[in-house]
Design brief:
single chain; 207 residues; alpha+beta; 13 strands
Length: 207
């Protein structure tokens, strides 16, 4: 996937009145936060942003060209109008190519497990993991092939293939995916019925 690029411009003035004017013009007020605590106020085209962020994840590094000066950044927060969904404000977090960063990367399952075809149920309790690496090594997502997963088998975080230069921060014993039989609920129901039958028998013998 090619890098998403946004064309932006620096804002001279700030404040709620200025933000409303920007939105009426079809643009979005935004801020780029840097490592040193600096913040650059910008605005960008609303339609370009909405189309550009489709399909990207929290770990996707986008390019923000501010008056021709390129900055690599994450889309850290998007504020929306709860009534109509309009994007009101965007926070970007700038990354530097030679500085290690920590980020959460989404985990995506791929394949139909053998255990599911044999009657088991797939559970995937973990949706992302935390890693540390240089921006250039950061994976957009981690694909996990679960097609060979049998009943009573599981995949843990430590089993994931992260790629060169990527260090795992999340605990390795966390379960990413597992397949188990769906007989527990039925067995419990049968046990409950059996216990109820015993209770009925005892009651009948008393009478």
């Amino acid at each position: 996937m090619s890098q998403v690029i946004f064309a932006a411009r620096k804002r001279v003035s700030t404040g709620s009145r200025d933000a409303r004017r920007i939105r009426r013009a079809g643009r979005i007020p935004a801020v780029i936060y840097g490592h040193s605590g600096t913040a650059v106020t910008i605005d960008l085209d609303a339609l370009e942003f909405i189309n550009g962020v489709k399909g990207i994840s929290e770990s996707t590094i986008v390019r923000v060209n501010v008056d021709g000066e390129g900055r690599d950044a994450f889309v850290k927060a998007t504020q929306r109008n709860i009534l109509n969904g309009q994007v009101l404000h965007v926070d970007f977090y700038e990354v530097e190519s030679d500085t290690m960063l920590r980020a959460r990367v989404s985990v995506q399952m791929e394949g139909n497990p053998i255990g599911v075809r044999e009657g088991g149920i797939l559970e995937a309790p973990l949706h992302d993991i935390e890693v540390e690496c240089l921006p250039g090594n950061l994976p957009e997502r981690i694909i996990v092939d679960i097609s060979g997963l049998g009943v009573n088998q599981s995949i843990h975080v430590r089993d994931l293939v992260l790629g060169e230069g990527v260090k795992l921060i999340s605990a390795g014993d966390q379960v990413v995916a597992l397949v188990k039989f769906a007989k527990e609920e039925g067995a419990s129901a049968e046990e409950g019925e059996a216990q109820e039958g015993v209770a009925d028998s005892k009651e009948a013998s008393k009478n």
